[in-house]
Amino acid sequence: MSEEKFKKIISHAKEYGFIFQSSEIYDGLSAVYDYGQNGVLLKNNIKEYWWKSMTQFNENIVGIDSAIFSHPTTWKASGHLDAFNDPLIDNKDSKKRYRADNLIEDFIQKIEKKLSKLIEKNRKRFGESFDEETFLSTNDRAKKYKAEINDLKSNLNKALNEENLDLLKEIIISKNISCPVSGTTYWTDVKQFNLMFNTKVGASAESATELFLRPETAQGIFLNYLNVQKTGRMKIPFGIAQIGKAFRNEIIARQFIFRMREFEQMEMQFFVKPGTQKKWYEQWKKNRMEWHLSIGINKNNYRFHDHDKLAHYADAACDIEFNFPFGFKELEGIHSRTDFDLANHEKFSSKQIKYFDPEDESKYIPYVVETSIGLDRMFLAVFSNSLCFESLEDGSQRTVLKIPKILAPNQCAILPLVKKDGLADFAKELKNQLKVKFKLIYDEKDAIGRRYRRQDALGTPFCITVDHQTLDDKTITIRDRDSMKQKRIKVDELENFLFKSFEISNWLK
Ligand code: ATP
């Protein structure tokens, strides 16, 4: 997808009330965004789709809503105070700051692109007889690209695993990786940068305690693990789900709502018996991919990426990557977190967190498999994938947001063909009947064609039109957003039609 298309996505999001730059009248606040009147509806629908799939479709998963602030020792125990760092590097000419690992990753992606172009060119040239594996192992240029990619990846992993900042800089210098703004390679050394925001609580400066804005929602779940287990009489395996804000002082915050400083996560921690974590990790990988596919976006837009470099708490980890407008990037993480968090909270709090397993009367700290998805990234995935520009048979153009119907901000629009002849009165009455059951829009301004276009651009799945025939035989037309086909049904059947279209269990099978 081109940069041009990405710009169109951002401007469409603004023009139709989905996403605004925060504090725009003061020229904006970098990497912070507000959701507008339609954005909040889409966002809430995504939340609900996730929340229900977790807490309603699984009997052994419950939800909580913990505070953004927690005792500061939380972050010592979780490792975030010591290890939640990004390696940063500055370009001395442009004065721009980058994540050193991202600069190298982008460089690797460039070579990967060159390699896939070469493969495609040769696939076309040789047609059916083309064998990718043979090509990769015999073509000199392909072999060179492949070796360079492998080399870079293994060096990058080594540098990150060993926290070797000099090696990171060495890779950047040896590959002549330049600043995208100044184009020069005049770099500072690489430094570690902690991503947590801090603030103070307390009446006076002397007695103030330093607090952190949570960089992930997961710790709120760990701190409440025992409360929920005991009061909910939960038996292992069981899960705790949570949706909430998280904050990270991201060094480079670009790519719209992909990387924000204030964002929302939907996380679920699944507590299992030690030794069974591998099985549950595989199970949750499968479940989460099925959830993504259930909303109907083409499966070619998703892929797994297994981690070579594991976070300080994990014994296995992967991402579900999505084909964003700027390429495949992380949408969701699935991590086998071992007993790292609970064991550390037990140690730092000196409180027993062990679970007594009635099955075999053993006592242990549970292991945890986590699924963690960024709500804003999910929003961007849905929104960017839905925006289409279509040329119609009559030569006109339409902009349509083909948002999966179950997530659409508004479910239908009620439109009288004209205001006069009692059509508006009939349509308003219909709106009043349906508005308590469905999220709908009433619109009587402009010609009907323009109103259809407006609803297309907002992603409204159905337009219900009240015309003169409606008054005669109590039928209305339903126009489908994607096919633009219209069908006439009885007004009495409308409610049932809408219920069926938006019944969540038809989607989350
Ligand atoms: P990245 O590598 O892109 O920085 P991460 O691996 O640090 O992400 P996790 O700590 O695994 O991310 O967080 C879980 C999820 O939270 C991510 O998959 C992503 O969807 C979301 N997320 C993380 N950081 C941000 C951010 N700055 N803005 C928006 N969403 C984010």
Structure description:
By secondary structure, this protein is of the alpha+beta class. It has three domains: 39-64 and 216-403, BirA Bifunctional Protein, domain 2; 85-193, Herpes Virus-1; 410-507, 3-Layer(aba) Sandwich (Rossmann fold). It has 18 helices and 23 strands. The strands form seven sheets. The chain has a seven-stranded mixed beta sheet with strand order 3-9-10-16-13-12-11. A five-stranded mixed beta sheet has the order 20-19-21-22-23, sandwiched between helices. Helix 5 (100-126) crosses helix 8 and helix 6 (132-138) packs across helix 7 (140-161). The chain is globular. The relative contact order is 0.11. The model has no long low-confidence stretch (mean pLDDT 94). The protein binds adenosine-5'-triphosphate. Adenosine-5'-triphosphate is lined by residues 216, 248, 250, 259-260, 263, 265, 330-333, 372-374, 376-377.
Shape verdict: globular
| Average pLDDT figure | 94
- Radius of gyration based on Cα positions: 26 Å
CATH structural class of the largest domain? Alpha Beta
Largest beta-sheet details: 7 strands, mixed
- Give the second-level CATH assignment, the architecture of the largest domain: 2-Layer Sandwich
Percent of residues in helices comes to 25-40%
The number of domains: 3
CATH topology of the largest domain: BirA Bifunctional Protein, domain 2
Query: Tally of extended strands?
Result: 23
For the biggest β-sheet, the strand order reads 3-9-10-16-13-12-11
What is the strand content? Answer: 15-25%
Report the uncertain regions.
none
Q: Structural class, judged by helices and strands? A: alpha+beta
Instruction: Determine the number of helices (DSSP H or I, runs of at least 4 residues).
Output: 18
Molecules bound to protein: adenosine-5'-triphosphate
Could you give the distance between the termini?
Answer: 31 Å
Name the CATH homologous superfamily of the largest domain: Bira Bifunctional Protein, Domain 2
